[in-house]
Write a structure and sequence with these properties.
binds adenosine monophosphate, Rossmann fold, about 350 residues, eight-stranded antiparallel β-sheet, alpha+beta, about 30% strand, 16 strands, Dna Ligase, domain 1, 3 domains
């Protein structure tokens, strides 16, 4: 999606990934398939481009450092290093005074026993590195769950978090340019299913105070990082209307896919503009917007009924060109607009249902 926006603006894109035949590779000018650890190939790649950015935060630090020897990297490698590890990310957030759910670093089963006593039940144990969409997570309901949850971390460092009985989950997608100007898309409301984002809509149904605080926290996080590019802050909104930062995505985010269409500049165009040293575009919505993810399950009964989904002329289809529709794998999404966010959300939900049920 970044590459599509970049190509529209006349940029040439060279993508580097350990995989072959990637969605980005389909639309990029050049695709290098090499391991992130192959630093000679990384340097060769960096010498061939004017600027480097990411759509995936788990790129190893050494890879980023090797690229940065030759070319500007946005956002900076240190930001990636901080945000790709939950412990470093949560420590950064709490050290800088941002609100987070209480957490503890877990290295041993004794750490876990002590931390569970301190944080109470339920709580959530998460691997410190390489976790997203609920991967590497175990909910702990009682003391008797501790041993099994610890074993599931396979000896990796982990973080125990107090469980948040949230009223809803929201996010703020923003972009910060090279002069420190910030543009944001307001507050987006997110519904998850099985720990994976299911439906997002904007504007979120939150109070003015929550809106202001969420945008302010996002701005302060971006400023604290000296961020350049598109970034998302994901929040829990508690039942007493308090915001807690769940995590930071140092890249365009799934909840920001609804910016395609109703805004002058989508979150991906902002990423292009920011990393290429251009001013940011308008983030104003001309209509309320929504997005429904299409996971591999949608293919369970064969090819989905695309024409049925698109029977609503306000709905747009985005498919990423991934070959293998495995359950839980994000294959694409539907976006839609409406007079209200509720109307837009109903439109994309209904379109997704039609994909599965229509025989047309
Ligand atoms: P994560 O990969 O950490 O973003 O977690 C994925 C989803 O799991 C979140 O969007 C929440 O729906 C849920 N979740 C994660 N951590 C917690 C928590 N501490 N309390 C309640 N729900 C959580």
């Amino acid at each position: 999606m970044f590459t599509l926006e970049a190509r529209k603006m006349g940029y040439r894109v060279h993508t580097f990934s350990p995989d072959r035949d990637t969605p980005t590779g389909h639309v990029a000018d050049v695709e290098t398939s090499a391991s992130y650890d192959d630093l000679d190939r990384v340097r060769e790649f960096a010498r061939s481009v004017d600027v480097v950015t990411f759509e995936f935060e788990n790129v190893p630090s050494k890879t980023v450092e090797a690229a940065a020897e030759f070319v500007d990297v946005h956002p900076k490698g240190e930001i990636l290093h901080t945000t790709q590890n939950r412990l470093r990310e949560k420590t950064f957030l709490s050290d800088n005074g941002f609100p987070v759910t209480p957490f503890r670093h877990i290295k041993s089963i004794d750490d876990l026993y002590r931390a569970a006593d301190a944080l109470g039940y339920p709580s959530v144990l998460k691997t410190a590195g390489f976790g997203y969409d609920g991967k590497g997570q175990a909910k702990i309901r009682a003391h008797s769950d501790l041993d099994e949850a610890f074993a599931a971390m396979n000896g990796n460092d982990s973080v125990l978090e107090a469980f948040v009985a949230f009223a809803k989950e929201v996010s703020v997608v923003c972009a910060r340019d090279q002069d420190g100007n910030l543009a944001h898309y307001g507050v987006i409301e997110n519904e998850h299913a099985n720990h994976i984002l299911d439906v997002s809509f904007a504007p979120a149904m939150v109070s003015e105070t929550v809106y202001r605080d969420a945008v302010e926290i996002t701005r302060n996080v971006a400023d604290a990082f000296g961020y350049v590019g598109t970034m998302c802050v994901e929040f829990f909104l508690t039942t007493d209307d308090k915001l807690l930062v769940n995590e930071i995505a140092p890249r365009p985010h799934n909840s920001g896919h609804l910016t395609f269409g109703p805004c002058v500049a989508s979150q991906f165009e902002q990423q292009v503009r920011a990393v290429c040293g251009l001013p940011l575009g308008s983030t104003e919505f001309y209509r309320s917007a929504a997005m429904a993810n299409l996971l591999g399950e949608v293919w369970a009964n064969g090819e989905p009924k695309w024409s049925a989904a698109l029977a609503d002329p306000n709905v747009k289809l985005h498919l990423y060109g991934k070959a293998d529709p495995k359950p839980g794998r994000k294959m694409g999404h539907l976006t839609g607009t409406g007079v209200t966010a509720e109307e837009a959300a109903s439109a994309v939900r209904a379109a997704r249902e039609r994909l599965k049920t229509s025989n047309k």
